[in-house]
């Protein structure tokens, strides 16, 4: 296992595109997180122009709700797509450069090859989760007045939700990469599915005309996004009548994990069946 | 006792309508330099891909070192298949470190193979800046890493300049002299003739012939003869028990025999018939002629 990670590490260490995309991801992520309060309040100001009783400005960076708010903004489609594209590039590169062939020739099994990519996804998810946890603590501490350890830890389970989101979404990307094997095609189809196909399916399935029961929560990307569904913002709750999540639910988390496991199984089967 | 490195038993592989390999059986023993000779599309690369677990054969089996194939057996084999496959954005050293990691070797052999292939000075430049010849040499370097028991080379001199070809051939002979078993796929007869000890000739996925290269070259099936009276000579030669055919000429005639006949026997045969030969020369059939004949027979 360590050996496989060592190999993955060498493959990305001096790969410029990997570091550029990773840098962009962190830049985008930090900017998004730091700007989100400002952007919401901007929205509130706009609404207030038409409302007789003005809504109060929101604050989202205080404990314990900062966990929920930050993990929500860090798992919107636009942010999640970055690590997914990185994973697609790293996997399809192996097919483009035929290095997967060479790895197998040299004595790596196809299963080991798949495991090495899964380990990479696991590592990326852990690193990003740790960094985001550190960032959240810094932001939270500087925005909370009566700080207690209990308060800080209260909603920290949302970080686990973030980790599961990162992990499963990247496995979805891995699935596209391994099945399609072509970089451009994989990125195009994955992005198309995430941003266009599934949102359309979502509204289609949500309307009671098609199915009696609403099966839209079972859509794979939607299942991932539901892990950290809404930010804990009172205004949103009041206006939209949303039921706020109070904690990370095991049932909600298990669905994307199930999909991811299924995809890994399919990828393994295809990898073993298909000639290299 | 022969030490079998690779045995292939009745392997067949079909791509849709094309039968790439059909019922191929081969045996490669320790210390051999085994040539897989055949024109493009004769199934050489497919065969190598099967024995390296890149593609699955439709039927048949193969064993490495007398055992069922596994990733562990592949770690003992150094291979160059088709094009050199490396990460273009990584340096040769890092590319070779990845190979060493997979094969469970240390990194201490990397400098040696880079020196052997003349790439040591370029060890830290990215692979994509390499010329084709350098890429091919790096592939050979990677195959040599950790002194494998078997070296598999698929068209190792393809696309190289004459100097590069000479260099690679010298290297192969050097490695062979150290006792490493080598399997080379090539469409160049000349190459097989120069490097290999054994050869299997493939055409359209079928094995036409295999054996020692020296035996193939030793087959002498024709003689050039001359005597005072050419007409008499031509008449008498037809009575030889192994006679096959004769190409008449004014100065010399060329005689083909059905089986191997040595020059001594021929001389004696004519002497007994009262004919003194003024010219007797053995015409060795080259691998190339043999190869083309075999291909012709299988059309």
What descriptors fit this protein?
heterodimer; A: 276 residues; mainly alpha; 12 helices; B: 299 residues; alpha/beta; Rossmann fold; Alpha-Beta Plaits; 6-stranded mixed sheet; 4-stranded antiparallel sheet; 11 helices
Give the gist of this structure:
Chain A has helices at about 1-15, 15-50, 65-75, 75-95, 100-105, 110-145, 150-155, 160-180, 185-205, 220-225, 235-240, 250-275. Chain A has about 280 residues and is mainly α.
Number of helices of chain A: 12
CATH superfamily membership of the largest domain in chain B, which one? P-loop containing nucleotide triphosphate hydrolases
Average pLDDT reading of chain B: 87
Order of strands across the main sheet of chain B: 5-6-7-3-8-9
> pLDDT below 50 for ≥5 consecutive residues: which ranges of chain B?
none
| Overall pLDDT score of chain A | 90
Helix content of chain A: over 70%
Structural Rg of chain B: 24 Å
Sheet with most strands of chain B: 6 strands, mixed
Report the end-to-end length of chain A measured between terminal Cα atoms. 23 Å
Q: Which spans of chain A have pLDDT < 50 for at least 5 consecutive residues?
A: none
In CATH, the architecture of the largest domain in chain B is 3-Layer(aba) Sandwich
Number of domains of chain B: 2
Coarse morphology of chain A: globular
Distance between the termini of chain B: 38 Å
Category by helix and strand content of chain B: alpha/beta
- Tally of distinct domains of chain A: 1
Number of helices of chain B: 11
Can you give a write-up of this model?
The complex is a heterodimer of chains A (276) and B (299). Chain A has 276 residues and is mostly helical. Chain A has one domain. Chain A has helices spanning 2-13, 16-48, 65-74, 77-96, 99-105, 110-143, 149-154, 158-180, 183-206, 220-225, 234-240, 250-273. The model of chain A has no long low-confidence stretch (mean pLDDT 90). Chain B folds into 2 domains: 4-216, P-loop containing nucleotide triphosphate hydrolases (Rossmann fold, 3-Layer(aba) Sandwich), CATH 3.40.50.300; 219-297, Alpha-Beta Plaits (2-Layer Sandwich), CATH 3.30.70. Chain B has 11 helices and 13 strands. Chain B has helices spanning 44-51, 71-75, 92-102, 110-116, 132-144, 162-177, 189-195, 213-218, 230-237, 263-272, 287-297, and strands spanning 4-15, 18-29, 33-37, 59-64, 77-80, 150-154, 181-186, 198-203, 206-212, 220-227, 243-247, 253-257, 277-284. In chain B, the strands form 3 sheets. Chain B has a 6-stranded mixed β-sheet with strand order 5-6-7-3-8-9, sandwiched between helices. Chain B has a 4-stranded antiparallel β-sheet with strand order 11-12-10-13, with helices on one face. Chain B has a 3-stranded antiparallel β-sheet with strand order 2-1-4, with helices on one face. In chain B, β1 and β2 (18-29) form a beta hairpin. Chain B starts with a strand and ends with a helix. The mean pLDDT of chain B is 87.
């Amino acid at each position: 296992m360590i050996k496989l990670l060592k190999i993955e590490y060498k493959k990305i260490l001096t790969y410029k595109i990997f570091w550029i995309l990773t840098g962009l991801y962190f830049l985008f992520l930090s900017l998004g997180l730091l700007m989100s309060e400002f952007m919401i309040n901007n929205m509130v100001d706009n609404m207030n122009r038409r409302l007789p009783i003005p809504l109060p400005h929101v604050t989202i960076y205080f404990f314990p709700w900062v966990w929920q708010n930050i993990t929500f903004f860090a798992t919107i489609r636009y942010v999640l797509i970055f690590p997914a594209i990185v994973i697609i590039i790293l996997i399809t590169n192996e097919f483009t450069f035929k290095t997967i062939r060479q790895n197998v020739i040299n004595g790596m099994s196809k299963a080991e090859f798949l495991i090495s990519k899964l380990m990479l996804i696991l590592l990326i998810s852990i690193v990003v989760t740790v960094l985001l946890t550190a960032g959240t603590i810094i932001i939270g501490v500087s925005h909370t007045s009566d700080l207690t350890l209990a308060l800080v830890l209260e909603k920290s389970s949302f970080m686990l939700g973030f980790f599961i989101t990162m992990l499963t979404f990247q496995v979805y990307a891995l699935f596209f990469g391994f099945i399609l094997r072509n970089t451009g095609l994989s990125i195009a189809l994955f992005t198309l599915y995430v941003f266009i196909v599934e949102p359309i399916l979502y509204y289609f399935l949500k309307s009671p005309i098609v199915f009696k029961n609403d099966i839209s929560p079972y859509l794979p990307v939607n299942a991932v996004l539901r892990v950290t569904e809404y930010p804990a913002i009172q205004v949103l709750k009041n206006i939209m009548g949303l039921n706020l999540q109070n904690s990370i639910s095991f049932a909600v988390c298990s669905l994307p994990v199930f999909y991811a496991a299924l995809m890994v199984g399919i990828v393994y089967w295809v990898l073993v069946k298909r000639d290299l | 006792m022969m030490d079998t490195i690779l045995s292939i038993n009745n392997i067949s592989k079909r791509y849709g309508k094309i039968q790439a390999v059909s019922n191929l059986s081969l045996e490669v023993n320790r210390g051999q330099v085994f040539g897989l000779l055949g024109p493009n599309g004769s199934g050489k690369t497919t065969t190598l891909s099967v024995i390296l677990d890149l593609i699955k054969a439709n039927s048949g089996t193969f064993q490495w070192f007398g055992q069922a194939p596994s990733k562990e057996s592949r770690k003992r084999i150094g291979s160059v298949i088709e094009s050199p496959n490396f990460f273009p954005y990584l340096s040769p050293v890092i590319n070779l470190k990845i190979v060493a990691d997979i094969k469970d070797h240390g990194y201490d052999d990397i400098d040696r193979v880079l020196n052997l292939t003349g790439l040591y000075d370029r060890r830290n430049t990215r692979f994509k800046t390499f010329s084709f010849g350098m890429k091919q040499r790096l592939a050979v370097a990677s195959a040599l890493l950790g002194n494998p028991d078997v070296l598999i080379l698929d068209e190792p001199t393809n696309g190289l300049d004459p100097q590069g070809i000479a260099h690679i051939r010298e290297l192969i002979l050097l490695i062979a002299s150290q006792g490493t078993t080598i399997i080379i796929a090539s469409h160049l007869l000349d190459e097989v003739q120069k490097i290999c000890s054994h050869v299997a000739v493939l055409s359209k996925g079928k094995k036409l012939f295999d054996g020692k290269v020296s035996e193939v070259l030793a087959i002498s099936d024709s003689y050039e003869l001359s005597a005072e009276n050419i007409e008499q000579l031509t008449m008498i030669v037809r009575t030889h028990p192994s006679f096959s055919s004769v190409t008449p000429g004014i100065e010399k005639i060329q005689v083909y025999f059905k089986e191997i006949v040595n020059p001594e026997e021929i001389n004696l045969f004519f002497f007994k018939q009262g004919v003194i030969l003024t010219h007797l020369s053995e015409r060795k059939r080259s691998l190339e002629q043999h190869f083309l004949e075999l291909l012709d027979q299988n059309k």
